[in-house]
Every structure is written in structure tokens, then in C-alpha cells.
């Protein structure tokens, strides 16, 4: 199969380029020739790598957070339609039994490639910065509980607040098991965050959101994470969770190789306004903004990755940077950069076609047209 358009590659944009796909791989990326006009290849305005979402709780009315495999397939299908060809299933703070059962229930989806693994967001998080995480189930890190969860396989990432007693040992446990340790939902000081990074934490869960804010005499987790070259910073680019100026600042300060766009989407993504469940809490969605029904705390988003890319481009970033943040960098976080995450020869043919307005007009996954 041949696709034609402006191709966003790691080396830059090939204006009027051709991407050739053989079976499930990208086999050629080149400039178009007059012969391609006659061949009548499929044309999109832009050809970008399939998006990689490393923080997503659901979408299209379906949720990952209950551990139901059919729900998970529905959520994955919904986001695939918006260009996300690789995603993890993010669980929220819940009783240990639910986290265990969900991880077991999702194992077949991980095995057949629908999911790239499970992201456990909680329960070892700060009560002061819990955001829309259910405070009833928050607790301090428990090494026995954690090793049981890790022994199931499938867990690829966990978010921890490093100031909790036992958190640094838990980060060590995650790193030892080859699981990405993420810092988030945290009231940590700058030094406590640095200690987590020294222990091997390599990801900031939605940097800025649900974190102690910056103060010039106590820079806190945001500055510590942003300033660490080995840490990738998640950003929820929905225009609600973060000011456009902050999105630009983080992108410029960290660079596109250290920013991963995430949706943090919940079931409400792609749905009409209404009430939705998030880990046992009621979330009310009005004009696409999700808030806890009690105190109005901003909850998960209704974002999709194509919309996140549009937000970044509209905020002034070049499309090649947005593509890197939506695909290449998050693929590297998951250790999948040798397989996917860029339009490059030899990688998996996960591709998204976008029109001039950056709306999805086609999606290929494993070389198969799914949209
Ligand atoms: Zn989340």
C-alpha cells in the first residue's frame, strides 16, 4: 500500500512524500515522483505516526477503570478512531482486589496487542493532591501488595507520590521489575522529588496537574521534574487542564523529546454531556469539561489525541514537534521506540492521515486500514 501527503518523519517533513507499507511494516519513505500521480495513491494532507497514549482511562462511553475486558476493548476502539494506535489502560485508585482483577482481566488484551499494558494511577498518592482519585482508597505503599501486582505481568507503569512513607522503596521495586515509575498526585518538595528521580522515576504524571505548585523558594515537584533531563513530562493538552502558555513553556523548556501528550480521557470522551463514574466518584461533564460533582475539582478529560495535537499546533508549535510528543516520545517511555512511534523504514505501519485542519481522515494499524 502507498500513502501520499506531507510526511512527518523524525528527520523533518517530506512535503509531498510517499510512504510505502508492506504487510505490517513501513518499507519506504520518499519524495513523490510523477509516476505516483499515475499510480493514484491514497492521499492525505499529513501523514503522521500513529499516536501513543500512555495515560487514558476510557472513552466513547467505555472505561478501563472497572477492569472489564469488554469495556476495555470498547475504549481502545474509540481512541483508535482518533488515531491512537498504541495505548495503556490507566486504572485509578481502588481497592487492591480490583487492581489485581483488572490486571488479570486485561492480560489477554495485552497479549493480543489491543493494549500495551496497564498503568496503575494510585493508590499510593497524596491525599492533599488526589484530584479526582477516590480518597477512600488512598494508602501508603505496601511492598507485599505491590509485588503481588507486579507478579501478574501486564503492569507497565505506576504513578506514585514520592513523599509517602515507603515510596522510594516502591519506586525501586518498580524499576527493578522493568516498570515505568511515574511521579504524580504529589505534595512532594523539590528534594523529595529529586530523591524519586535518583531512585529511577522517569515520568511525570500530567505535569502541573495534581501537584504542589511552584514557589521560588520551594520549587516543588514541577521544577524538579521539568529540570531533570532523564524525565519525560506528560501534558494534558485539552486547553482546560493547562493554560496554552504553560503548554508552550513546558514544550520549550523540556523539548519535544521529553514531553508526552496524554489524554487522561475518561468514559465521557466522545460522548454528550452528562454524569459518569470515575473510580466510584460522580463526574459531571458540561460542555466537554469534566468535574467532580462535589467540589467541582477538575477530573479526567474528554480529550482525544488528535485534538491534543491540534491544541499544540494552534498554540504555536510545529507539527513535527506535536507528532513527536504524541507518538515518538511516549513510545520511548514504553520501551517501544524500536518498533513504532515514528514514520521510519522498518517500524510498524501505524499511521494517521490528517486533513488541513488536522482532523483524522484515515488510520492504519499494523499496516491494516482501520479508519
Ligand atoms: Zn489519570
Description:
With 371 residues, this protein is α/β, with parallel strands linked by helices. It is built from ten helices and 21 strands. The strands form five sheets. It has a seven-stranded mixed β-sheet with strand order 3-2-1-4-19-20-21, covered by helices on one side. Strands 9-10-11-12-13-14-15 form a seven-stranded parallel β-sheet. Strands 16-17-18 form a three-stranded antiparallel β-sheet, with no helix packed on it. Helix 6 crosses helix 7 and helix 9 (305-314) packs across helix 10. The protein is globular, with a radius of gyration of 20 Å. The two termini are 15 Å apart. The mean pLDDT is 96. Bound molecules: zinc ion.
The largest sheet is: 7 strands, mixed
**What characteristic shape results from the CA principal axes?**
globular
Q: In oligomeric terms, what are we looking at?
A: single chain
Strand-pairing-aware structural class? alpha/beta
Helix content estimate: 25-40%
Low-confidence stretches: none
Nearest-integer average pLDDT: 96
- Beta strands, count: 21
Distance between the termini: 15 Å
The number of helices is: 10
Q: How much beta, percentage-wise?
A: 25-35%
Radius of gyration, in angstroms, nearest whole number: 20 Å
What strand order characterises the main sheet?
Answer: 3-2-1-4-19-20-21
- Name every ligand kind in the structure: zinc ion
